[in-house]
Amino acid sequence: MVGLVVVSHSERAAEGIVEIAVEMAGDTRIEPVGGDGRGGIGTVPDAIGDAIDAADDGDGVVVLVDLGSAVMNADVAVELSDAEAVIADAPVLEGAVNAAVAATDPSATLDSVREQAEAARGMEKL
């Protein structure tokens, strides 16, 4: 099953987004990661890499990020990971929910889950 990682500058925000996505995720493994490792705002490549490894069961991992340096640090983590992982160009909350739903499909692939996460870019709210 394709796993998910939610990366935010805020540990609490990452955990909250995962809390929402888990409602739709079935058995999908979703790992939150955020903060600078000292209780502050930021992201750390090693922590992101650990989350990728924890979410991976061999079918790959889609990584959702909030902004700025989270993208850069997630990119470093993906490069260093032995897992097959991709970063979705998607809004983190809506993308995580879409990806969680997509990952429950028994025929889901890394590409199909990423595509569904990225489809959230076009979601209208009103």
Protein described:
This protein has 126 residues and is an alpha/beta fold. It has helices at residues 11-22, 45-55, 69-80, 92-103, 110-119; strands at residues 3-8, 30-34, 61-65, 85-87. It has a four-stranded parallel β-sheet with strand order 2-1-3-4, sandwiched between helices.
Give the topology, please.
Blueprint: E1 3-8, H1 11-22, E2 30-34, H2 45-55, E3 61-65, H3 69-80, E4 85-87, H4 92-103, H5 110-119
Parallel strand pairs: 1-2, 1-3, 3-4
Keywords summarizing the entry:
126 residues, alpha/beta, 4-stranded parallel beta sheet, 5 helices, 15% strand, globular
Strand and helix order: EHEHEHEHH
Number of strands: 4
Largest sheet: 4 strands, parallel
Task: Kindly state the percentage of residues in helix.
Answer: 40-55%
Rounded to the nearest angstrom, the distance between the terminal CA atoms is 33 Å
Provide a brief overview of the structure:
This protein has helices spanning 11-22, 45-55, 69-80, 92-103, 110-119; strands spanning 3-8, 30-34, 61-65, 85-87.
